[in-house]
Automatic annotation (TrEMBL):
InterPro entries: EF-hand-dom_pair (IPR011992), TPP/p25 (IPR008907). It holds the Pfam family p25-alpha. It is found in: Cytoplasm, Cytoskeleton. This is Tubulin polymerization-promoting protein family member 3. It comes from Kryptolebias marmoratus (Mangrove killifish). PANTHER family: P25 ALPHA-RELATED (PTHR12932), TUBULIN POLYMERIZATION-PROMOTING PROTEIN FAMILY MEMBER 3 (PTHR12932:SF16). It comes from the Eukaryota. The keyword Cytoplasm applies. One of its GO terms (cellular component) is microtubule. Keywords: Cytoplasm, Cytoskeleton, Microtubule. Belongs to the TPPP family. GO terms for molecular function: tubulin binding. GO terms for biological process: microtubule bundle formation; microtubule polymerization; positive regulation of protein polymerization.
Length: 178
């Protein structure tokens, strides 16, 4: 059988794929989507001997009837199911070791994830020093956003409309008339 360090690396790979894409995941259970991603990223799926359909069938076979996830023990059982199919010319033990070597120490890849565009047009549109009008009021001199103060017009409860020139003179008029 495999050495203890190999088993530890297998467990680490299992945990990394288990938490991939799920902020609430504990790393103790692997869902079907992440199982399929593990098989694809670790090159267990080769589109000849093992396909994504085979991976889904094995997942359904090893999980509990009502469960939607598999544990680490069920994960090992699933790899035992796929090993002879993936490595046809080898014995069961050799195939299992070969499939362990594919998985151990691996982690999810992020190929095809959208990257931040760095073009002149984006730089020009996000340069706050070039903003005019009401948008200019949303940023301070250093280019940082002012937050709520920049987005909302702050209301002064003086009783006067905003553009009234003689604001605050009403009380003085009443005193002069008496």
């Amino acid at each position: 059988m495999a050495e203890s360090t190999d088993i530890e690396q297998l467990l680490v790979a299992f945990q990394k794929f288990a938490i991939h894409g799920d902020t609430k995941a504990t790393g103790k259970e692997l869902n079907g989507k992440n199982w399929a991603k593990l098989c694809k990223d670790c090159k267990i799926i080769d589109s000849k001997n093992v396909t994504s359909t085979d991976v889904d069938i094995v997942f359904s076979k090893v999980k509990q009837r009502t469960a939607r996830v598999i544990t680490y023990e069920e994960f090992e059982q699933a790899l035992k199911e796929l090993a002879p199919k993936r490595f046809k010319g080898q014995s069961k033990e050799e195939a299992l070791l070969s499939i362990y070597k594919l998985v151990e120490g691996r982690e999810p890849t992020n190929v095809g994830v959208t990257k931040v565009a760095k073009t002149a047009a984006v730089d020009r549109l996000t340069d706050t020093s070039r903003y005019t009008g009401s948008h200019k009021e949303r940023f301070d001199e250093s280019g940082r956003g002012k937050g709520r103060e920049g987005r909302e017009e702050i209301v002064e409860n003086t009783g006067y409309v905003g553009a009234y020139k003689n604001a605050g003179t009403y009380d003085s008029k009443l005193k002069t008339e008496k």
